[in-house]
Amino acid sequence: MTGSRFATLAADLRHRITVGDFEVGAGSSGALESEAALGRRYGVSRVTVRRALEELRTEGLVESRPGAGWFTAGTAFHQTLAVGTFRHATSAVEEAGKNAVRRVVEFAYRPVSPAAAAALGLALDAEVLFSRSVRSVDGVPLDLVDEWVPAGIAGHVSRLDAEVTGIWSSLRQHGHQIDTVRQTIMAGVATAADADLLQVNSGSPLLLVRRVASDGGGRALALSDHGYLAHRFSLEVEFRGWPTASAAQPPGLQSITHQLPHSPHHSAEENIA
User: Quick one: 132 and 93 in the same domain?
Assistant: First the structure.
């Protein structure tokens, strides 16, 4: 193991937890290997193992039980995407028997950025309502959410609405019906500002999900960028059938040749789901 040995170990265990190596259920208790076994597997001291596990406990991924060892804390969430449907991450959280709490850290009207203008179809001199919030489960951050709404339709949305009801739900309550949602999934890493709010190290991997909501007439109502902590949230898509024997790509995937509007997070690659 090179570099910081405990950080490398923590990263590997974080990945194993994310992909379900210690998953609770189906006959598994969610128990990790013992500290001694982990030390032998990775060729590190017990002090290094303990430091890595303590870091994962701080992130809400594991917990220790006196006399029993270390266990996954059951705080990684998985959401299935079905064709023709739209679900928020809160549905996956609720299915796990948890509640997501949103804390708004910025809420103000401001000139639209070129990126948001392109996504919302606005003029570059337009004004938008901008909101930035952090959602947490059991006190541990899950994602960072940036949202933009054209000023002309955002007048009824309050900071309390953004924190409790949610901006999209508030728009619907005030008569703006969401007919379609275009969702783009990207890989990225946390900036220094992101990391501070998400309580992780700068450069931590994020699952970036950009959503644009439009009404029946095709007018864009809202843009949101979600930066999910990659070790805490995953999206699953099931494809059925294969169009033709000569098809070069699996159904449902499309290559992107244009540049998407810039996200406040660092984006590594872009795909349409």
Answer: yes
Q: Which two tokens stand for residue 85?
A: 């449907």
Give the separation between CA 7 and CA 1, rounded to whole angstroms: 10
Both 11 and 89 in a single domain?
no
Whole-model pTM: value is: 0.67
76-134 pLDDT, tens digit per residue, is 555 555 545 545 556 566 666 777 889 999 999 999 998 899 999 999 999 999 999 99
Please compute, for residue 32, the number of CA atoms within 13 A of its CA located in the half-sphere on the CB side.
32
Total Cβ atoms within 10 A of residue 150: 21
**pLDDT tens, residue by residue, 142-175:** 889 999 999 999 989 999 999 998 999 999 999 9
Q: In this predicted model, which residue has the larger pLDDT, 168 or 17?
A: 168
Dihedral sign for Cα 23, 95, 235, 201, please: negative
Print the domain residue range for 15: 5-72
* CATH code of the domain in which 34 resides: 1.10.10.10
